[in-house]
Amino acid sequence: MDPRAAARTDGAEQRPAGRRDRRPGRPGHPGRVGRPGLPGGAQIDDPAERVAFVQLASSARRRVRASQPSATRAVQRADVVRDFKRAWEAKNIDALIGLLDPDATAIADGGGLATTFPHPIEGGEQIAHAWVEIARRRPGGMTFLERTVNGRPGVVAQQDGVVVTVFAFEVVGDRITRIWVVRNPEKLRHWTTG
């Protein structure tokens, strides 16, 4: 057998690992796009289809990344709630107003079984004033603890070790846009038993 003929075989075993086969008609050739994950190692020959595929894949990756909350953003939201809690405890109206979106809303649920504000409070400044009033009326033995509430940064109020109120916050950017206040003992049951 001619030694040159043996060298002209497929040659896959002679190529270093990881090196692409650049011969026309092969998956690594620049004229063909072979993407991992295509069923059966399918190839896309049509340039328009190739562009559409790349755009679709890129768009899908962006949507997946956007749907996954960033750990950095979660930490930033928790920091905003922590700052709000500190300003609230210090009764610092200016700091509270600075942390609340001007169009923020606070909604409370007492279930008719606990005292709450009867209607939503609209506006950052109005919420700040209401929270300073809540801080002024705070009974002795009440503590505020930072907790995760329904996957959001939150604050839990305990009276002598018993959960009496849960606050959940929606944070957009560096401002609080919504506060949910739950004082309904029926809805706080899992907080007091677990």
TrEMBL record:
InterPro entries named in the record: ECF_Sigma-70_Domain, NTF2-like_dom_sf
Organism taxonomic ancestry: Bacteria, Bacillati, Actinomycetota, Actinomycetes, Streptosporangiales
Biased composition (Basic and acidic residues): 1-19
Name recorded for this polypeptide: SnoaL-like domain-containing protein
Disordered, as annotated region: 1-46
GO molecular function, one term: sigma factor activity
Originating species: Actinomadura namibiensis
PANTHER family, per database record: ECF RNA POLYMERASE SIGMA FACTOR SIGI-RELATED, SIGMA 19 FACTOR
